[in-house]
Each structure stands twice: as structure tokens, then as C-alpha cells.
Design goal:
The structure is a homodimer of 211-residue chains. With 211 residues, chain A is mainly α. Chain A has a domain of 134 residues: Orthogonal Bundle (Tetracycline Repressor, domain 2), CATH 1.10.357.10. Chain A has ten helices and no strands. In chain A, helix 4 runs parallel beside helix 7. The first copy, chain A, starts with 14 loop residues before the first helix and ends in a 9-residue tail after the last helix. In chain A, 35% of the residues are buried. At the A-B interface, helix 1, helix 6, helix 8 and helix 10 of A face helix 1, helix 6, helix 8 and helix 10 of B. The first copy, chain A, binds a DNA duplex (18 and 18 nucleotides) through helix 1 and helix 3.
DNA sequence: GTCTATACGACGATAGAC
DNA sequence: GTCTATCGTCGTATAGAC
């Protein structure tokens, strides 16, 4: 990589910002496959094509770096789902909203697979002192889904014989697991998103009037 | 492998065997919440109420201990699902079989939560050299589900517009995630199992003739 | 069987050259 | 900004007492 540092006169990210980005991506990949404690700075550095010591120019320490990966992972799905919901017409039905949220959540997982996967499994593995911050963020996201589900149940748009909390966890669990699928199974992404929506909404049994 | 296998007589488990069991359980718990590399022998020892050095009397080394936890985790669901399927009447329908497998899988997760949870997330985190053995075991389990799903699709018992591989991953993902639920969300276990079956089969939208 | 004490290696972090 | 060199810490594993 002998690219000359280009003076960021006009606009666009500085070289430093680009490097930071490269490091975060590399970190997310290693974290996703090795877990929190299994991730060595030397591995991150190698994947980002630099030496371990150089990381300290961009981040305070290991924890600071993990912090950035984690925050981004939790935020990504959140932002995307909120945006997608807001883009819906005001009079959209509950089922339509749910479809939209499912599609957006899966979409974010497919696009930011490593970051999402890393943040999802890391939440458990973090040293207890570090957990509260991210748990809170995750709960705010969970709350969005919870409202969606409860509102839909109250209006009779979806079945109300399932506990809303468990229902949310079932749905998100099914979708989150996609981050861990073997690449070969993912296949066509649009197809996958459609299937996810279909499965959550209608299940595997073909509908029959006299269920 | 680990400790010496006692020539099995008619007596109960030796004291050594009991201790081994205690250690494996402790290890599963720590592995489930800290990940592979995050699990220190001292933590396992503490939870098993002994000192770290003493573990080496029962297991060759760290890897040997993890090995036992992992093997058990993959086996548990497998055994339970196979047994449940065999107990069905020969003429059981495809949907009935699927229900049974779902119920058994969830049941095993609820009962061996730590071991299952540990083995599920550890598969990814293992050093590459150690993975093949467990992957193979997991694939054998996946094959059972695959056959179930394909057979059901071919007979028109379940919808065939979803890719069978992805369908399997969706279903198992939804169920596996239960291992990571907060204890407070699990609630009544029988209720949870029923809900899991209902959700996979019929989804969240109440059935209507003109879907 | 379990303990304490210790060697040994691996990784995080810092300092200073370029 | 990135490198090399180095220090300190911590965890695995071993040795030997009880």
C-alpha cells in the first residue's frame, strides 16, 4: 500500500478517518469470529494491514476500539428500522409495519454482518462492568419492537395468544441468527429477506380456512 | 483424553466421576458467558469450588476440558430429537414430526442451556484447527432436520416456496436463540415450547381463508 | 485428590526512531 | 502515521508437599 497521502482540501474523509474505518471493520471481523477475549490486537492489525503498535495512534486502547465496534453494531439496525418505519405512509397497517421492520432488520444484518454479529454475541461476553451501557442501547431497540408487537396484538392484526416479550425474542432470534449463517446459505439477499418476512408472518404450514 | 476410565463395575459413579461432572458443568457455564478465549481455568475452578491447579488431575489440559463440554452440547439436542422422533407412531404426518422435533430441540435447550449455549457459540470461536470435528457432528444433526423439511415439502405438508436450507437455518436460529434469552423472559417452559411450535408452524398472522 | 509455588509464554501497552 | 523494541501482567501448565 504505497498510496500517497492525499491532501483533503476539498472534502471527504481525512486519511486518518479512512484508516480508522479500516481498523474498525477489521476489528469487527475478528471479534465476530473469535469473540471478545479471543481477539488479539495483532490479529486486528494484521487484517488492517498494519502493525499492532500502530493501532494506538487511532485508539486509546483495546477497550476503546471494541467500544466503537459495539456501538456501531447496535446502532445500525436501530437506525435502519426507524428510518424504514418513518418512510411508511401514516395509515400503514400493523402487519405492514411489522413486515417493514423485519425487512429492515435483516437488511442491516446482511449489510453489516460482521459488525452486527460481533455486537450481538459480544454483549454476553463483555466483562460485567462494560455491559450496562450496551444493554441499555439494545433495550431501546427492543422497545421499538415491543411497541410494534403490542399495538398489533391489541388491534387484532396478529395473534394475541403469544406472550409479546417472548414473541419479540423469537422473531429477533430468528433474524439475528442470519449473521452467523454460512455464506453459501445466504444466497440471494432479496430472496432471503422475502423468506424471512413470509416465515415470521405465516409460518411453514400452508394456510387453510379450518386450521 | 482426560482421566482414566475406570473399569465399569456395578457400582455407582466414582467420586472422581462426580467431580468431573461438576467441573464440566462449571466449565459450560463460564464458557457460555465468557466465550472460548475468555474462559480462564481459575474461573472454572472457582465455580467448581476448587483451585485451578487441581483441574489437571481430571483433565489433560484446557483443550481437553473444553472438548468434553463441546461434545456434550452438540450431542444433547441430537439424541433428544432422534429419540422423540422414533417414539412417534409410524404413520405420523410430516407436520406432527416437525412439531415433535421443534419441541424436543427447545426442550433440550431449556434443560441444558449452558452446555447448548456454550457449544453453539463456541463453534465459531474455536481455533480453526479444532473446528472440523464439531462441525461434522453439527452437520449430521442438520441433516436430520433437512430430511424432515424436504420430505414435508415434497408431500405438500408445508409450503415449498421457501428454500429448504434457509428454512432450516431460520427455524433452528429462532430456537437456538432461546439459550441466550434472559432468564426472566423464559417464564413457563411448557408455555414457551408450545409458543415455539405455534410460531414456526403458523407465524404471527391469524389465518384467514383469503391470505 | 487437592493444595501452593513457580516457570514460562503470550498479549496489551508504551517509548522512541523514522 | 507507522514502525521496532521492550516492559509488565496475566494465564496455562508443571512440580512437589500434604
Amino acid at each position: 500500500m504505497g498510496a500517497k497521502a492525499r491532501p483533503s482540501s476539498a472534502q471527504g474523509p481525512s486519511k486518518s478517518a479512512i484508516t480508522r474505518e479500516r481498523i474498525i471493520t477489521a476489528a469487527a471481523q475478528v471479534l465476530a469470529e473469535r469473540g471478545y477475549a479471543g481477539t488479539k490486537l495483532s490479529d486486528i492489525a494484521e487484517r488492517a494491514e498494519m502493525k499492532a503498535g500502530s493501532l494506538y495512534y487511532h485508539f486509546e486502547d483495546r477497550e476503546d476500539l471494541v467500544d466503537h465496534v459495539l456501538k456501531r453494531g447496535v446502532d445500525e439496525s436501530f437506525r435502519r428500522v426507524k428510518t424504514a418505519l418513518k418512510a411508511l405512509p401514516k395509515d400503514a397497517g400493523h402487519v405492514r409495519k411489522l413486515e417493514t421492520a423485519i425487512d429492515a432488520h435483516v437488511h442491516s444484518i446482511l449489510q453489516f454482518g460482521d459488525v452486527t454479529s460481533a455486537s450481538l454475541q459480544l454483549l454476553r461476553q463483555l466483562p460485567p462492568e462494560l455491559q450496562p451501557r450496551y444493554r441499555r442501547e439494545q433495550q431501546r431497540y427492543g422497545a421499538v419492537w415491543h411497541k410494534l408487537i403490542v399495538a398489533a396484538q391489541n388491534d387484532g392484526a396478529i395473534r394475541d395468544d403469544l406472550d409479546p416479550v417472548r414473541l419479540r425474542l423469537f422473531i429477533l432470534g430468528q433474524l439475528n441468527w442470519v449473521a452467523d449463517w454460512p455464506r453459501t446459505a445466504v444466497g440471494d439477499r432479496d430472496e432471503l429477506r422475502k423468506e424471512a418476512v413470509a416465515l415470521v408472518l405465516h409460518g411453514v404450514v400452508p394456510s387453510r380456512e379450518g386450521r
